[in-house]
Every structure is written in C-alpha cells, then in structure tokens.
Amino acid sequence: MAKHHVATTVNGDAVEFLCETEQTLLDCLREELDLTGAKEGCSSGDCGACSVMIDNRLVCSCLVLGVEANGKSIETIEGMADGEELHPLQRKFLEHAALQCGICTPGFLVASKALLAKNPNPSETEVRYWLAGNLCRCTGYDKIVRAVMDAATEMRGA
Amino acid sequence: MQERVKKEPEREFRVIGTRPLRPDGADKVTGRAKFGADFKMAGQLVGKVLRSPHAHARIKSIDVSKAAALPGVKAIVTRDDFKDQGSEFVPAGEMLVNYRDVVRTVMAREKALFEGHPVAAVAATSESVAREALKLIKVDYEVLPHVMDPVDAMRPDAPLLHDDMITAGVTPAPTKPSNVAKRVEFALGDVEKGFKDADVIIEREFNTKPVHQGYIEPHACVASVSEDGSAEVWVTTQGHWIVRAHCARLLGWDISKIRVTASEIGGGFGGKTVVYLEPLALALSKKSRKAVKMVMSREEVFRASGPTSGANVWVKIGAKKNGKIVAGEAILKYQAGAFQGSPVQPGCMSAFAPYDLEHVKVVGYDVVTNRPKVAAYRAPGAPISEYAVESVVDELSERLGIDPIELRLKNAAKEGTKAAYGPKFGPIGLIEGLKAAQDSPHWKAPLGKNQGRGIAAGFWFNIGGETTVSLQLNEDGTLSLMAGTPDIGGLRASLCMMAAEELGVDLGKIRPIIADTSSLGYNFLTGGSRSTFSSGMATVEAARAIIKEACVRASKLWEIPIDAVTWEDGKVKPAGDNAGKHQPMDLGDIAKIAGKTGGPIIGYSAITAHGAAPSFGVHIADAEIDPETGKATITRYTVIQDAGRAIHPSYVEGQYQGGAAQGIGWALNEEYIYGDDGKLQNPGFLDYRIPVASDLPMIDTIIVEVPNPRHPYGVRGIGETPIVPPMAAVAAAVKRATGVRFFELPMSPPKVLKGIKDAKANGGAKATA
Amino acid sequence: MRYEAPDTIEAAAKLLAAESGDARVLAGGTDLLVQMRSEILTPALVVDIKKIAEMRQVKEEAGGVRVGAAVTGAELKEHPRLSKVWPGVVEAANLIGSTQIQGRATMGGNLCNGSPAADSVPALIAVGAVAAIVGPNGRRELKVEDIMLAPRKLALTKGEIVASFLLPARPPKSSDAYLRFIPRTEMDIAVVGCGVSLSLDGSGTCTAARVGLGAVAARPLLVDAAAKALIGTKVDEAALAKLEAAARAACKPIDDKRGTIEFRIDVAGVLARRTALIALERARKA
C-alpha cells in the first residue's frame, strides 16, 4: 500500500518524509532523515537511547509511529547545541567525563534537558528517578548525575 | 567523593594525571559520532538471520526456494556457503576460540545447539521483505533433548552435544564422549598437608547464573564486496583485526582482501571480541553484489550472543585461629554454552590470587550446554571464582572473630608472592588498597537499621599483546596519532596525553584516530585491560621515535654530530660545545625542514607489549534489606583499586564505577531465565534487569598508585578488576544486614525473603543455602 | 498495515467493528508497538484515537472527575485537582515504565492491554472508577474491576472502546494510595500491585474502603474481605493484620520470571498494609 506522507518540524526545521505504517519515528529519524543521534538499543522502550521530545514531551521514539509525527514539533540531540555553542548539559557531560562509550549519551542529554525545563533545581534523587528510563552500562550513573546537577546549577545562574 | 593514594612521591608531570576534555567528546554529545548502525552505503540491502527455535536439534534439511523467489530477496546463505573448519584454537581477548566452533557459531551445520542459533541468512531490499523471506525458509528439525546447566550436563546420562567431545586434561583419557571439554588444574604445595594444620575449615558450594555484558548497542555491521574480491566492513567491535582474521578464515579469502573499519563502539565489555554477523554480511554481499547491512535486535543479542558462564563452585579454606590461611581448594564447573571455551581457566588462576598461600589447588571443568556460546565478560571467569573464595574468606572472618580487612592483610599477596597460577608478583597494590579501605570514611561510617557492610578483594591479570601505533608529524607541527585498539571508554584522551607529555606539546595539537586494518599494522583487540597499557606504551615509543628523528634532522641542518643535539622542553637544542650556536627548534620548525632533510617524519611502534601488571581492588558495599520483602538497596559503595598510574583520573574512576555497577547487577538481579523448553524467557531489558540510575548511590573511588615498573608511566590495566569484588562485597553486606548468608546469585528478593523467613523459622540467624 | 486517525469516537468504533482482520486501538503505543515489533501482533489496521477530544480531556462531573482514557500519565500528574484528590491513581499511572513511557502511556491502554500486572488498574478499582464504553451499537458503562477477565481477554465486544473513566466523588477525609513491589526501583512490571482508597469520619474511623490487588491472579482483583477488615475500624494494628490476611487469601498467583507464588502471597499482605497506611495518612490530611 502507499506510504504515508508526513510533514513535521524537527529541531525547528520543516521536513517531510514518506513512511510505512509500521515504521517507528526512530526508524524515520534514522533512515529517512539521516538523523542518527537517537539510537536503537532495545526497540521496546526499556533503554531510553532513542529519547526525543515531541511537542515538549519526553518520549521514546521507538514507541511512536512515524506517521504520528505529522504536524508535531520534534526535538532531537542534533538540535541541542546552539550553532557552535554546546548546551550547558553537553559541556558538563564532557567536563565530568559523564560518558565512556557514548551510546546512551544523546538519550541522557535529551532526557536531562527535559528534566531541567520542568524542574530547574532537582535533588540527586529526583535526577535519578527522572533518568531511570535511560540505561547506561558503562558509567554506573555517578558522573552523569553529577553533570546534570552541575549543569542545573549553572543554568539557574546560581 | 574521589580520592588518590600514591605510593611514590609524585613525579612531575605536565599532562599526565590532569583531566582534559576527551578529543572525541564533541561528536559524542551532539549525536554526530557514528556507531555500528549509524553507517550506510548507497544501495545497501538489509540482512536478517533465521534462528533455531529449538535448544537442541539435528538440522535435516533447509529449503530456501520459496524465500529466494520472493521479490526483493537478493541473496540467501546457509551452512552450504561456509566451508567446514578444522580444529584450531586462536586467542580472542583473554579467551581462546576454535575455528571449528566459530564457523558453527556463525552458522549452524549438523545441529542447532541453542535457541537462537543461526541456520540461514537473507539479504533483501527492505527490512519487511527480509522478515517475510525468513518466514518462507523451511527447516526440517529433528528435535533432541536439551541440557541447560553444567551440573546436569556432567551427568553420565545427559544429552550429548558433540559426539566427539573427549575430555582433555584427564589421564587416562576417557573412552566415551561427554559434555566436559576439558579439565584444568593449578596447584602449589600440598593441600591435604595444609588442611591438616588448620584450626578451622570452611567448605561451601556456590551457584551463579549466566549474565550478559549488557552493552546498550546491539551488534551491527555493513559489508561490501567488490567484483575483484576486495571487501570493506564497517563494524562495531573491540578488535577489527580479529574480525578481519575470522572473516578471512571462514570465507577462505586472503587477509589482505578485507579492510575493516571500527565504528565507535557502544559498549563491549568482552562481548564484541568475536564475530556473529560479519561473515554472514560478507557472504551475502558477495552473492548479491551489493552492500549488506546487518543489525541485531535486542532480542537477538540476548538469544544469540555470548553471555558469560553460569557456574557451580565448591570452595574449601582452612585457617589457623590467628587468621593465617593454611590451605585453599576449589572446584569450578563453568558452562561454556554450545561450544567449548568457558573462562574456567582464568577463573581457576585468579580464584586465590589475592592471597599468599603455600598450599592451594584449583580444578576446573569446561562444560558445554545448549545455550549460546559464552564470550568474554570483563575479567572472564574471575568474578565467579573470586565471588566464591571471597565469600568463604568473609565467613572465615566471622567464624574466627577477626576483622575482614585484618584477615586479608594477614594473608595478602605482595611483591614476591608466588601466585597459584605460576608467576611471582612484582610490585602490587593490594596491601595499599586494604589499608586505604581501613582508613576510608566509608569503613568508619555508622550503619542504620537493616543495614550491613561487606568488603571483598579482587584481582585481574591484565595483558599486553601485539600493538601498533603511528604518529605523524604534520607540516605545521601538529600531530596525527593512529592507534588500532578501539576506544571503548576514553583511550584516545589518554594516548594524546601520553604523547603530549613526551613531546612537550599542547594536547590540542594532537588528533587521534582509531585506524582501519589497511592503514596500520596489526593490533590485537581491546580487551584484557590492555589498551591504555599497550597502545600507551607504543604511543610513548612512537613519540620518542619522533624526538629521535627530530634530533637527527636538526643535526643534519646544523651540520653537527647527532650526539651534540638534545631534546628539552619540547625543543631540539644544540648541546655541549655547540650550545647556543643554533636557535632551538620546536616540532613545527622541524616539520618545515622535513622534506629537505630526508622526508616525512613518522614515529612508528610495532610491539608485543610486555610487562602488563595485575591490578588489585578492594570494594566496600553497604546494603539495606527490607526484611518484609527481601529487597536490597545499595546505600553506599566505595571502589579502591591500584591503577599503577592514572593517566586521566576521570576515566579511571569511570571504569571503577562502571565495573562496580555491573557487579552489583550480577549480585542482585541479573540472570538468564530459561523455561523447561530450553527457550529464553527474558530476552530484553525489561526482564533482564540491569541497574538503573535510581538503583545506585554515588560510587566513591580511591585510586591507589603503585606504579608498574615495566611501563614508561607506570600504567596498569584497570578496566576489568572493578567487576570482580562486587558480588562478594554485596553478599557479605547482605549477610551482615540479615544474618543470613546466601550461596547463590542473583540474590533476588524472593530468594532473600525466603532465606530470612527460613532462618526465623529455624530459630534465629543461620547460614542457608 | 493501515493507519487511521478519526476525530470522533463513533467513527473509531465503526472502523474497528468493520475490520475483518486484526484491528487495534493506538493510544500511547507503549504496549502495542512493542508487541508489533516482536511480532506477537500484526494488525491489519491501527486506529489512532489521540485526535478524539472526548478521550483526551479531564472534566469535572457530578462532584467527581471524568478522565479521558487517552490522557497520558504525565498529563494526569500535571493536573492540579487529580493529584490532590486521587493521588493513588495519579501515582499508579506514573509508575508505569519510565518518564518517557509516562509521556505517552494512558490508563485506557494500560487496562485494555489486558495484563493482570497493569499498574493503574488496582488504583482505579480502589477508587471505584467506572468506565464509559462506546461501541458501534452505542454506549454503556462497566466498573473497571469487571473489564479484564483474564490475561489479554476483556469484557468488550468487537469495536468497543473505553472512552473515559469516571472517578466518583468521595466524602471529605478520603484519599487513596498505590504501591507496587518490583525488584529494582523503577522500570519493572509489578510483581504485586496494591491500590487502597478509604474514607474517614470525624472520629478517624474508616467509613468506606476499597482494596485492589494486581499481579496476583489472572486479573486485577477487588478484594471485598480486605476492605471489610478496615471498615468500622480506626485502621489499627488489629485491622491491619486482618487486612494482610485477607489480601493474602485473595491471591491466586503463578510462578513466573518475575516472582514465585509464595513470594507474591507474602508481599501482597505487606503491600496492603503499607498502602493502607499511606492512604490513611492522606485521608487524615484531606
């Protein structure tokens, strides 16, 4: 059957693509739009490596159909830096060595940004529970949590 | 909280020991970095694997005709497309693999030996066509009884996986085949004699389940074969030269024909030191004459890629009342999965390594079972054996009424100790680690209700191995560094730091890459905690070669003898009688005259790195157990480990924390769950439960530095030791929190609750199985 | 596979009823897409109901609140009144999966996926939620405890959709709570789930109570005996002990990869007690 024509906004840019019903938004971002920052770790919503924002809501893109993106506004890791300037979270992740292999990093950054937009002053516990849907196998989470809280401090101007 | 404890007064370093940003960092935080599945080639096909639904079955026939006729299917491969291989063992990480088994792991031949075993592969124009094609392949299986666990597999009436498996290492050799591939033994002294001197003897039996490395990035590759037989492979791997070697062997091609590029790797921990998809993708590409991309789903990763062994371990330790251990004995039965090659040998060798023992005997059995062939997982074999030994040492400390650190100090291996597996230790940092543990704020902190504290030691050998590094001096004085050990956690930063230290240049002037197999000499894979050690050693050698050559070029330019030239603070200077007669030249100046003084300047090092030294660790774990549900919460955790010299402390701390987190998961919740039908019930991250962020506290680290005298900067490999102590440390904490000792992993809530209830019913805390 | 996104629930019901092959409602997709990916389900038609206003709104009704079945967990949490009056329902919906899952998952989907371990269902049962159901033949109502019959089996006919849940008004000094047992701290399917709603009078005596239990039988349970243990008491130690025993007695669990029979029964009692105490504390402050 004919593919769906999807018109959507990704990181502020109007884009279009064709997709089959069963293709997920993750598939479409990676295959149709060549935005490979969101990763496929599990395809079952258990690892968070595919995290994106849809209309300001943090979701797993592997659990959204591509066709559902029509008319929506999507933010991915590729839109996080401001031109050449890294977002404070991106900078803090590097400063704190909050990544080793880096496969989970885009998901963590998108999820952390969503947290700080909602709660600019989270406690360590709040950070850990918000990020429980993002799996990391390399770091044991310690430096990730430190980086998020340090970025939060900077972003509050504190 | 992160700390350092140094044995020697600090050598003056400019760069080593600082914490610069990693050179590959910007790409990793912007989504630009390309991992295995992020690469595509024009016109590529999608490759998919048909896998056995049975744990054990004879494959009588495979009919691919209907699949081949499906529009969009461009190639299909089965066992007929791969020549059989004779028996030959080759190193893969710190384990050995046998080519006869590798070809069968990649594609089943006579039998399917585990659920998920590949029986065919297709390449098609889209994912949906490929899936459809798999459904059209008809395989005629004769289902056979299966066996899933090493103790069952060792029984005389157990279903037999391989008709020709005669246990090696037994004299006289058995006359009948079995599921026991080999028996190994390591011994010192005479344990029978040793036990006679013991005042106290403790004997325990432990059981562990297989656990998966749990890398977040599934296996992925793209392969493209030209009409002239040359091939390109893009793959996520810990060792692209190994991928090249295995593919060349399995396909019968010259090694030179295959060029393998390592993508960024999304975690490996040993699990990406072997091949699964790559030979299939190459074979499909050759047949279809198009590039073929193959990516495993998470379910395939669990069903068909190697976890580490589950095991049955018996340990017996004897000690005198004053705490001196007089003898240690262990029997290890490790399951290898469908083909031989569990890490039982390193398990045996490492079991008692933290102790200076006169009498020790460890026997190991490598047992096949109908599960995926195990692959290396961070310190392969050691977490299991040392969990068992450390747990008995903990029980000993309670029985003797001696503090668990004091007991270990009394028996600790040190420089000059002869290890059970042969060599005498050089300088090592176990005693320093134990003392740092004693002095740590964690050890002294008070405990709350339902909380207990446990401590355990750990050891890993670490390896060196074949390594090549090339360091190019660019025309403007900057440098390009080519290494060949894939960077799994910050290696490029450390290599640049070592080069910058040697050359006296700014870190930012060196750009590191991990080169492909056609662009650099041979490199053994990243494993055995070897990359910072070996590629580091080669980098230093390459840097020193550049310095040497720079001096030669300056001497040519200045027309003075070579021994009249010296290198100081990043510059070539005339020395001795010629001092002051010429302007010092930095590398930029040297680069400008390279062409007219002999040609481009390259520092090259192709070595077999020797002198890798072991790393000892000590972990302190606090656990709180909910007495009504058996649920354990890790409330505090400290990793103390000897790094020799921490080149980049943040990445050393990161290895400590990551290994600890994996060990905590292994201790509490991770396990493969198979049904009676031999099928895996939890092939996903929902029910294969690795720790999430809210499960863990901050993980404190203390880096001990007892330099390794055989590395220019004193480096020891550190990546693997951190996974060795956690299970015993957590088990000891659980014991002290509940009064109940457990001898089985994982210590999941139903088991812990049952143990607590049984102990109450039996009138008070008692050890339980 | 076809995809439709109708504007009205009647149109959605018609599409589902008319489909000869397998047709599924797509709400948050957090169960459906997982099942499609692992080929447990291969629907011929997915009907996306997220454009249907009735299913996406939260409205006051008869002193209570009618919650659209396709309102997400995250939206429930952000609603000022829901969290105050029905904190157990909101926290249950927000324990499903992760932050990312809660950004999409709905209580309608959680119920209609048909898993006895669904987190929001014991909480909905505890507050006496009633589902409004729309089908090709019109509308009807069902109590939430009557909807799931067995794993993956619902008391709905072809084409029927759960449109909304009415959370009925309760007297002042009422509140609810939901607890579940999982081996980690997040991300797991409930091994046992318990929802308790209760109301107190001026003297602190429990005048009404409902107890829901999940993951301990082939469907989520309304446990009358557990409620009776609380009603008429001050929720003291004696009442809690009776509650524990009643909760345990109601269990008919299985051994599976998430828990054993013995463990589920033990923990059901423990959770019932702990959940009741939280509901009690909240009701006192309400």
Task: Tell me what you see in this structure.
The complex is a heterotrimer of chains A (158), B (769) and C (286). Chain A has helices at residues 25-32, 88-95, 105-118, 124-130, 142-155; strands spanning 4-10, 13-19, 51-54, 57-60, 73-75. With 158 residues, chain A is an alpha+beta fold. In chain A, helix 2 crosses helix 5 (142-155). Chain A has 2 domains: 4-79, Roll (Ubiquitin-like (UB roll)); 88-155, [2Fe-2S]-binding domain (DNA polymerase, domain 1), CATH 1.10.150.120. Chain A has 5 helices and 5 strands, in the order E-E-H-E-E-E-H-H-H-H. In chain A, strand 3 and strand 4 (57-60) form a beta hairpin. The model of chain A has no long low-confidence stretch (mean pLDDT 97). By secondary structure, chain B is α+β, with helices and mostly antiparallel strands. In chain B, the strands form 7 sheets. A 7-stranded mixed β-sheet of chain B has the order 4-8-2-15-12-13-14, with helices on both faces. In chain B, strands 1-28-27-26-19 form a 5-stranded mixed β-sheet, sandwiched between helices. In chain B, strands 10-18-17-16-11 form a 5-stranded mixed β-sheet. In chain B, strand 17 (325-337), helix 10 and strand 18 (360-368) form a beta-alpha-beta unit. In chain B, helix 7 (240-251) crosses helix 8, helix 11 packs parallel to helix 19 (726-738) and helix 15 packs parallel to helix 16 (531-558). The longest helix of chain B has 28 residues, at 531-558. The model of chain B has no long low-confidence stretch (mean pLDDT 95). Chain C has 12 helices and 14 strands. In chain C, a hairpin with a 2-residue loop joins strand 6 and strand 7 (138-143). In chain C, the strands form 4 sheets. A 5-stranded antiparallel β-sheet of chain C has the order 4-5-10-6-7. A 4-stranded antiparallel β-sheet of chain C has the order 11-12-13-14, with helices on both faces. Chain C is globular, with a radius of gyration of 18 Å. Chain C has a domain at 174-285: Enolase-like, domain 1 (2-Layer Sandwich), CATH 3.30.390.50. Chain C has 286 residues and is an alpha+beta fold. Chain A binds chain C through residues 1, 4, 20-22, 24, 43-46, 48, 51, 54, 57-60, 62-65, 67-68, 111, 114-115, 129-134, and chain C through 1-3, 26, 28-30, 33-34, 36-38, 46, 48, 50, 72, 74, 97-101, 103-104, 185-187.
